[in-house]
Design brief:
The complex is a heterodimer of chains A (59) and B (564). Chain A has 59 residues and is mainly α. Chain A has a domain at 32-59. In chain A, 46% of the residues lie in helices and 0% in strands. Chain A is rod-shaped and about 45 Å long. Chain A starts with 23 loop residues before the first helix and ends with a helix. Chain B folds into three domains: 3-296 and 406-475, Sodium/glucose cotransporter; 307-388; 478-557, no CATH class. Chain B has helices at residues 3-23, 30-35, 42-53, 56-69, 80-98, 103-110, 113-146, 150-197, 205-214, 233-250, 252-258, 264-295, 307-314, 319-348, 352-383, 392-403, 408-444, 450-474, 479-505, 511-531, 538-556. In chain B, helix 5 (80-98) packs parallel to helix 10, helix 8 crosses helix 17 and helix 11 (252-258) packs across helix 17. The N and C termini of chain B lie far apart (82 Å). The chains are: A mainly alpha (59), B mainly alpha (564).
Chain lengths: 59, 564
């Protein structure tokens, strides 16, 4: 992503289509080590584990 | 405070601010000033998002809340990780697709200018007032506890923040927040270790947790479907989700943080980092409060933690009544100690019946202690010209000032001031960017040079900072006003979120129905606020639901065919 891309003068775009020259792959690119599905599963799984630990600590 | 504490405090704050200014010393354009040159990686974004949400009152108030009400407030954050996942999937790609600087720009591409500026205006009103409170809330506590001048404390916090936000913009904010967050979490870990080490030697960590549980402080999760309880698992997972969606998805002070990412991947990972670590972070802060509570089962606590108010009440006509309550409080402490000793003995002997009887005695003594504390508050409130409010915000700072070793007091004060500065900095850059992008550049001077916009962005940021400081330092702020500002926020959040959800998910809704629905929503929410006793957190749900329902209904309304 160019650092000066946002420095250009921008009026209101006329449509909701992406206005940048960003390659579409970048919009969906996941980190090289995991898929997005796996990352979301980790976050939700961590929440489930936190709730379980909190439930175990509840007196 | 010792010289070492002052050294640690000023050393920490000035190093972070100097680093922020130095790191962003190179000249930049107006957009770079507002989005940081799209240079941040996921770790910086994640820490920056967390530092923006963690205001000073988080570190002052949350441990105190655990001290008085237990751990149940943690459930409020259970919806946040789910919201981070939804935002990563649904919101971030849309903002990235248009390379917007402010979230409200998106609304013009989807609807029209008036809808965009309505949402931006609602944000400016709400966040502009909140910025003053973000500075005022810690300043009033610190000035009371440390004897500092309230005005000077507000001006000092505000001046430092204005210095690096105006000079370095968003990049300076992100860079400083990264280090501020490290200081904040490091300080809380140190506080936790110190309080545990100060427990009596015969009390193991497990026993300390057990005692907290006996006294009702380990009420972490409540799965009951009770609607009369403010914090349950169900209200946390739904209400917390809703609030997190509103705050992180539509509040420019947060949107600006993750839109400064090097790529969409970095922005998403930064949000998910927040989703992963927010609950453990809040757990730690609340757990410190619970350990301070356990500490005070073995070391006498003051009857009222706001020492300045207590001292003033001692000089008032009802001082005799207050002294009698203090004597009762001290006697209850001795009785509770004896009951705790019996409980420990019963636990050592694995005597179930004796354990239950001793636990009941401990609970009874604690319940009476609370009743005496409440009576003392009533006497203090009646003795002073103005009710000082409850003492929850003073519990943790009181523990820090009385019990932490030299040097660490300075570190914990740095934690509180770092939190005040980090959240204020995000607010100021967001207010400045929104004023420039959504109003000035859009409607006042659309064709000026970038150098002009940079100067105006800096000017707006500084102006919002000065307004916030003036609001905090010189306005006659009281507890009711703080609550009023919280209510004000909830009055607008629902409508703004509703507009974004309609924009994203209801393609057939046009600009005019959305705009009318937003105005209708605001009118109804304000009417509900003025005429009913509905809790203000529900305003978020009501506002959002009305925008969606009304815009869909208006879109279905038959249109007249244009005559030819």
């Amino acid at each position: 992503m160019s650092t000066d891309a946002g420095d250009r003068d921008r009026g209101a775009p006329a449509s909701i289509e992406p206005s940048s020259a960003e390659p579409r792959e970048e919009m969906h690119a996941a980190p090289p080590f995991l898929t997005w599905g796996a990352i979301y599963a980790i976050v939700i799984g961590a929440l489930a584990a936190e709730v379980a630990i909190c439930a175990a600590l509840t007196r | 405070m010792s010289a070492l504490d002052w050294l640690v405090l000023f050393g920490t704050l000035s190093t972070i601010v100097a680093y922020g200014v130095w790191k962003t010393r190179l000249p930049q354009g107006s957009a770079t000033f507002m989005h940081g040159g799209y240079a941040d990686n996921w770790a910086t974004i994640g820490l920056s998002v967390m530092a923006t949400q963690a205001s000073a009152i988080t570190f002052l108030s949350t441990p105190g809340q655990a001290y008085t009400d237990g751990m149940r407030f943690l459930q409020f954050y259970f919806g946040l990780p789910l919201a981070m996942v939804v935002l990563s999937i649904a919101f971030v790609p849309r903002f990235y697709g248009l390379r917007v600087v402010t979230a409200y720009e998106y609304l013009e591409t989807r609807f029209d200018r008036k809808t965009r500026q309505l949402a931006a205006f609602l944000f400016l009103v709400q966040r502009g007032l909140s910025a003053g409170i973000t500075i005022y809330a810690p300043a009033i506590v610190l000035s009371t506890v440390l004897g500092w001048s309230l005005s000077l404390t507000c001006v000092s916090i505000g001046a430092l923040v204005i210095l690096y936000t105006v000079s370095g913009g968003t990049r300076a904010v992100s860079q400083t927040q990264k280090h501020q967050m490290v200081v904040m979490m490091g300080g809380m870990v140190v506080a936790f270790v110190v309080v545990v080490l100060q427990l009596p030697r015969e009390i193991s960590f497990g026993r300390a947790v057990g005692l907290a549980g006996t006294l009702g402080k380990m009420n972490v999760v409540d799965f009951s479907p009770r609607l009369d309880s403010r914090y349950t698992f169900w209200s946390g997972i739904t209400g917390g989700f809703f609030l997190a969606m509103s705050y992180f998805g539509t509040d420019q002070s947060q949107v600006q943080r993750y839109l400064s990412g090097r790529s969409i991947t970095e922005s998403r990972l930064g949000l998910l980092f927040n989703g992963l670590f927010k609950v453990p972070m809040q757990f730690l802060i609340l757990f410190v409060g619970v350990m301070v509570f356990v500490f005070h089962q073995f070391q006498p606590a003051p009857i009222f933690f706001n020492q300045a108010a207590l001292d003033a009440a001692h000089r008032a006509p009802r001082a005799g009544e207050l002294r009698a309550l203090e004597a009762q409080h001290a006697a209850l402490f001795v009785r509770k100690q004896a009951a705790i000793a019996r409980l420990e003995t019963a636990l050592d002997r694995h005597d179930g019946a004796a354990e239950q009887a001793a636990a009941e005695s401990v609970r009874a003594a604690e319940s009476e202690t609370q009743a005496v504390r409440n009576q003392a508050h009533a006497v203090i409130a009646a003795s002073l010209p103005r009710d000082p409010g409850n003492d929850t915000d003073y519990i943790f700072i009181s523990f820090v000032m009385r019990n932490l070793p030299r040097g660490l007091v300075g570190l914990l004060l740095a934690v509180i001031l770092c939190a005040a500065m980090s959240s204020t900095a995000s607010e100021l850059t967001a207010l400045g960017a929104t004023t420039l992008v959504d109003f000035y550049r859009r409607s006042v001077r659309p064709d000026a040079s970038d150098r002009h916009y940079l100067r105006v962005a800096q000017l707006f940021t500084a102006a919002w900072g000065v307004l916030a400081v003036l609001f905090a330092a010189f306005a006659s702020l009281v507890d009711n006003l703080i609550q009023a500002v919280n209510i004000l926020g909830s009055l607008f959040y629902g409508t703004i979120l509703g507009l974004f959800l309609v924009a994203f998910f209801f393609a057939r809704v046009g600009a005019t129905p959305a705009f009318i629905a937003a105005l209708l929503s605001e009118t109804v929410v304000i009417a509900v606020w003025l005429t009913t006793g509905v809790g203000f957190l529900w305003f978020n749900v009501i506002g959002c639901a009305i925008v969606i329902a009304a815009s869909l209904a208006l879109s279905r309304a038959p249109r007249r065919s244009p005559r030819r």
